[in-house]
Amino acid sequence: SDHYSRPASVTPTKRAQVRGILEHEIDSELSPGDAIPSERALVTRLGVSRVTVRQAIADLVEGGVLERVHGKGTYVTGPQVDSRLHLTSFSREMRDRGLLPATVVLSAREEPADDEVAYGLRIRPGRNVVRVERLRTADGTPMAYEVGNYPSALFPGLLDRELGSLYDVFASEYGVVVTSGEQTVRAEAADAHQARVLGIAKRAPMLVQERVTYAGDRVVELATSAYRADRYRIHMAITPRG
Ligand code: GLP
Asked: How far is CA 126 from the centre of its chain?
């Protein structure tokens, strides 16, 4: 009878070869956020089957090198940020990680505070607040969707300013330096609007920060920031309980 068994193959499979070629091209020619060539283009250029190309891409998605963006295509994985939970601005936090922060102001207006906002900001309901809705990006990748409320009395003319880094504007234009804050973080599924703005699937997980920020004993901000859970993690240094 035939007890002969073949030695394990030492030649990489087609799938592994294609994966290696793609990995090399990603390292040498592409940047985070770039789309990879289409399956069809890869089939033609590499002279392998579509199944092999798909498998190699799937391996790289699995390994976190590539990511599929809902309804768009396959891209080189973008930035991943570990927050240290300090009282920093979004802009500073991204710059500290070597990423370029940018802001898209989605809406900004002055309106009377409702009960909830007034309570959070410790002002009377009906007093004016500036409400700013922003998309925050890092190296062009959508990171967070933020809605902040700021007392108009503290920041007259805020709507006429550049609303890129608010903490910078507070400091440089109003002499208001944030000194402390209270923050909660919770998990939430993206609604349709958040999903569209952040470029993620509806119901995709987000980490939502609710922050009240102080300058001395004045409340200067009541903000909700929804971070993409695939981009943003919270890092905690943990020490023994004293
Ligand atoms: C973080 C906080 C927000 C705050 C923002 C300020 O994202 N979660 O509450 O408004 O930082 O950042 P920047 O100064 O870049 O606007």
From this structure: 33
